[in-house]
Amino acid sequence: MRRFLCLCLIALCLTACGGEVRVSDVTGIAGATSRQQVISDHPHHVLIGQAMILRRGAELYYVVEIGQTWDGVHRRLRMDTAWHNQEPLTFRGMRRTERFCRPLGNCLGYRVGLLGFTAAGFAEAAETGVEATLIGPDAVIEIHIRPGLFAEALERAVTSGMLSDQVTPPEPATPPSG
Q1: What is the rounded CA–CA span in Å between residue 94 and residue 115?
Q2: Most exposed among 74, 130, 146, 159, judged by the fewest C-beta atoms under 10 Å?
Q3: Domain tally for the chain?
């Protein structure tokens, strides 16, 4: 009986930890996501990233949501900008106390922000990954987003048919507001 319960728990975790494709009946927004993965193992702030392709009507948005895991000690992390090779990236920081949820209902962390990409930039990141520096009033943190996260979201979007009519995003891609 114990083995069975452990197997059920592992299966639930594997299902919850992976990405997915969803469509909201209320808003009509469709989204394909990757799994969540640690993108910065800073000594005081562990950041999690999840690549997403969102579609609202004819508009496509290519983003990476960044969240902070809660460690019981450090407060919510605020970031203003993201940089790569001395160039600013499209970034929208979160100022409210919006919760960031991990699998199995762990919603103790906070959303840090969204990185926006063009379709071409997202496809390139699926090959090379992204290294960037987040800068804000609370810290300067290096992040490393592996190519697999971008590739997973892209594969789910293609497989689900979200990208079948070759709709292109606004240039530069601006993440939709909260």
Answers
A1: 11
A2: 159
A3: 1
Residues of the chain with confidence (pLDDT) below 50: 1-17, 167-170
Amino acid in position 66: I
**Angstrom distance (rounded) from CA 143 to CA 74:** 18
Whether residue 36 is contained in a domain is answered as yes
Around 48, how many Cα atoms within 13 Å sit in the side-chain half-sphere? 21
Asked if the structure places residue 166 within a domain, the reply is no
**Residues 6 or more apart whose Cβ sits within 8 Å of residue 133:** 82, 83, 84, 140, 141, 142, 143
Domain housing 17: 2-160
pLDDT digits (tens, 9 = 90+) for 22-60: 888 888 899 999 999 999 987 778 899 999 999 998 899
pTM of the model: 0.78
- Give the C-alpha separation, 110 to 118, whole Å: 25
Angstrom distance (rounded) from CA 62 to CA 94: 17
Say if 175 falls within a structural domain: no
3-state secondary structure of 14: helix
DSSP-based three-state secondary structure for 46: strand
Question: What is the dihedral angle through the alpha carbons of 145, 146, 152, 155, rounded to the nearest 10 degrees?
Answer: 100
Residue 76 near residue 137 (C-beta atoms within 8 A)? no
Cβ contact 165:118 at 8 Å = no
